[in-house]
Structures are given as structure tokens and as C-alpha cells.
Write the C-alpha cells for this entry.
Amino acid sequence: MHTPTLETDRLLLDSLTERDEDAVYRYCQDDELQRWVPVPVPYERASARFFVGKYAKDASLSPTLTLWAIRSDGVLRGVIELRFEPLGSATVGFWLGREHRGLGIMTEALQALVEYAFEEDGLGLTRIHWESLVGNVGSAIVARRAGFHFEGVSRQSLVHRDIRVDSWQAVLLRGDSREPSEGWPL
Ligand SMILES: CC(C)(COP(=O)(O)OP(=O)(O)OC[C@H]1O[C@@H](n2cnc3c(N)ncnc32)[C@H](O)[C@@H]1OP(=O)(O)O)[C@@H](O)C(=O)NCCC(=O)NCCS
């Protein structure tokens, strides 16, 4: 799907381009990112080139995936994507470069994306699904702050580096409050 541009107080969400290759390559060397996100390890130049090139271009044409670059002051900070499923649902995924974490950037990006995704004039979704490997506290804090409801552990539901592992699952419905909910294992 064509990538709509979204703006928040601090951030601009727009398309990832080939000019982002160096930043993506650098950010994806990070141990913490590699621990939680299924990027190739070791992360080679070719992986960054593929991600900002074919992957981003395919996403801009695909009916099932939209990928946004998260920028502020013209600098790429990270990415966020939605994978669309039938009948108004999508799964969200995201990461930030190490030096941009802990500043509330992903909470701000996710909140903006959620609002846009639920608007009739936006994506018209009714459900957004979040999941992470069990123990990804930083990601869970972001989802909780955006109002997602924790639904539990799904056993061996994710394949991560060729191993089946348990995941945390949470969902936000269009009619839900955007206030943090109870029940998270945090
Ligand atoms: C997950 C991630 C996107 C969060 O983005 P962020 O912009 O740093 O998130 P925010 O600043 O909005 O909030 C994160 C909060 O969690 C806290 N936090 C992060 N990691 C934590 C941890 N391991 N234990 C406890 N708290 C943690 C931060 O201190 C911050 O809290 P604060 O605002 O009270 O200081 C970022 O940490 C990241 O890119 N991680 C690596 C990739 C990843 O895990 N992606 C998600 C895959 S599901």
C-alpha cells in the first residue's frame, strides 16, 4: 500500500528510501535489536540494501504490508510496520536505533499510527495486534502505554532464529480506551 505520511509533535513517519541504508545497517548491528527482532545475524550490508530497497518498495505496493520510516529532525530513528490480515486487522512491529531509545519515540509513533489506522478516513481497521518474544519489556511498555490489552502467552508461536519460542500477545480494538490497561506481566 502507498505509504501515507503521518506527523506528530516530534516525528515524521514516511517512506523508507535507499538513502536510509547506512543508518539501517548501523542500527541493525545492535545486540539488543538482534535479540528481539528476527533480522539476519550477522547483519550484512546486503541485508540493509535489501530492506531499504526491495523490501520497502514491495511494501509500498503490497496490500498486506505498510512500512514507515520514523524520523525526527530529518534523521532516521527507526521503523514501524503494519501487516494486514483479513477483515480489518493488522499486526504491528517496530524497532529503533539504540541511541534513540528511552525518549518516548516509539510510544509517540505507535499512538499516531493507531489513531490513523482506526480512522474511517485512515485505514479503517478495527483491531491491531502486537506480539513480542516473552521478556521484551521495552516493547511491552510501549504497547501498554498505547492502550493494548495483554492477552497472554502463546506457547511456541514464533519462530526466532530457527527455534520455536513463546510470545506475549496483546490487542487494541478500535473502541478501546487508549489508557494503559491492567494485566500486563510488567
Ligand atoms: C522496544 C523499543 C522500540 C521501545 O522504544 P522506545 O522509544 O525506547 O520506547 P519508549 O521510550 O516510548 O518507552 C520505553 C520505556 O520502556 C523502558 N524500558 C525499555 N527497556 C526496558 C527494560 N528492558 N526493562 C525495563 N524498562 C525498559 C524505557 O526506560 C522506557 O521507560 P521510561 O519512558 O519510563 O523511561 C526499543 O527499545 C527498541 O527498538 N528495542 C529493540 C527492538 C525491539 O525490541 N523491537 C520490538 C520487537 S517486538
